[in-house]
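Q: For a teaching handout, I want to show students what a protein-ligand complex looks like in token form. Below are the inputs, and the small molecule is dinuclear copper ion. Please produce the holo structure.
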Amino acid sequence: MKKIPLKYIAVASVAALLGISGCKPKNAASAVSAGAAEKAYVAPGKYDEFYNFVSGGFSGQMSVYGLPSGRLLRVIPVFSVDPEKGYGYSEETKPMLNTSHGFVPWDDLHHTELSQTNGEIDGRWIFANGNNTPRIARLDLSTFRTSEIIEIPNSAGNHSSPFITENTEYVVAGTRFSVPPDNVNGDVPINTYKKNFKGTISFVSVDKTSGNMKIAFQLLCPGVNFDLSHAGKGPSHDWFFFSCYNSEQANTLLEVNASQKDKDFILAVNWKKAEEYLAQGKAKKQSVKYAHNVYDEKTHSATSTIETEVQVLDVKDFPDIAYFIPCPKSPHGCDVDPTGEYIVGSGKLAALIPVFSYTKLQAAIAAKDFIGNFGGIPVVKYESALYGEVKKPGLGPLHTEFDDKGNAYTSFFVSSEIVKWNIKDLKVLDRAPTYYSIGHLCIPGGDSRKPNAKYVIAYNKITKDRYLPTGPELSQSAQLFDISGDKMQLILDFPTIGEPHYAQAVSADLIKNKSVKIFKIEDNANPYVSKGEGETKVVRTGNRVDVNMTAIRSHLAPDNIEGIRMGDEVYFHVTNLEQDWDVPHGFAIKGSVNSELLVMPGETTTLKWIPDRVGMFPMYCTDFCSALHQEMSGYVRVSPAGSNTPISFSLGKNSDTTQLRQ
Ligand code: K7E
Ligand code: CUA
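A: Here is the structure, written as tokens, with dinuclear copper ion included.
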């Protein structure tokens, strides 16, 4: 008999106490039913039907899988440096990771959110949150690259992010950790939390055409932990809903002290009202410091600007902007159904799922049906906003996604399952075990007005015994379920990059045809571009040496460089002259304390190199680009400081004709 890990036994007994079916799913090995392989099979050479954009958690990256095959198509670096692609290592991309704390090479990416128009996924951009050093990134889905990163001031732990409004008017950032605001002295005793700590929610506007982000305004809220959020839809378009926990305002041992109250809150924010107050000039300007980093497709370079001001609305001064709705037991997920009428809260410690009604909430607000206030914000009576509760759905509900037939799918971390239930009658319809400890789940379009509900994908925290052992650390996983019928059917398991939290999926048709294949060399506006080998040069300016070079199958130009001296700072600006899809060239030089460069066709990328010794340094292309890729190499000669070896560079001058050798 297989050993059951201790943690499952513990969990199972808790579940048994609560009268809920056990948690280690039975028949784990044989749970895939007949016909599953066919459903997940995409023949070699055939395209997948969906793109799945999966957060990488502590990898700081986003990975792209094809569905239903589960094939990994790409890993996109967002908040973490990626030596494979030179992201964060090349001079052009370093500014993307600049913050008010300086260069930050890592973050914790939890949520991905596709841009929408009229509540439907439009395939233009995908947003991602940086949880540790609060940031939001925007990725362009024509290049699959990070185009912009904006830091969020007055914030710490940007978890409740980057959820968007129906027309991508705003992407939001709710702080997980309340902290003293940036413009006051933060050097205060930690146990003055209740007095000095504040929670901030930022509304970041997104330009309709360029996608450029700007912090439009921030809402100053009481000190709690904002966790997740979703925008209203249709009738509730003007509203945004944020779950929060730690309404106990504890500053230590949160697992106990922030689990005292029976109910925490969902904060309902009328962002249209907030916009009105902003337009009336009612917001306070506050001095802050935050980085705004933009990647320019023309220069193939990022710039980082430090911004210095935000506009803040203190919600307690504007009584009709925000209302608290009580929500049981440390809510995590906060999800709005496709109609915009139902708001689902998921208490991590709750054994039921509360479903709130937007209509009832509005009636309760109009009738001032409040039970008091919290931090100056009215608290609506629970029963007055409640549509109903899903009874005994499972244990530890986290997140909910929706299909197009009026059903909801909720993930249960503790009982390791997905539970399908009907929104109207709140009846449980089906449950499917996950292997194991599911966090988020995703249905293509499952948080939009138009779900494309062919699949639900589970993102699991634990894979113990599912794959071949790989030492102490095992991968996390995704599991694909067919939900086209009444019952969920598990059809595929695949390991993931990093720890997946939220993910989004979209029909490939919306993206694949506009995917950029090359960058046009004539449009390249990088100041160090060489648009042909005739433009290559090596220029000394004091101790700075700029090498404008090119790469084309199968040589670097120039490939012999002399006259570099100790004490020099050398910048290799490599332009890839290819104008063919998928022909990158790489660049590396011996002893470089940097990653390689990976240069796409038509692009210029720069490696900074400070030689540390006198001698001969081979350089070469790192991407196997042609039959003569191994020949794609060259030498850089480094002479002592003060040497009189002149700068020289050449291509094709072989040893017998070399004049510079001394
Ligand atoms: Cu993992 Cu959205 Cu950070 Cu839930 S969160 S699992
Ligand atoms: Cu270019 Cu290998």
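A: Two things your students might notice: The chain has a mean pLDDT of 94. The pocket of K7E (ligand 1) is lined by residues 110-111, 159, 228, 332, 398-399, 439-440, 501-502 (CB under 6 Å).
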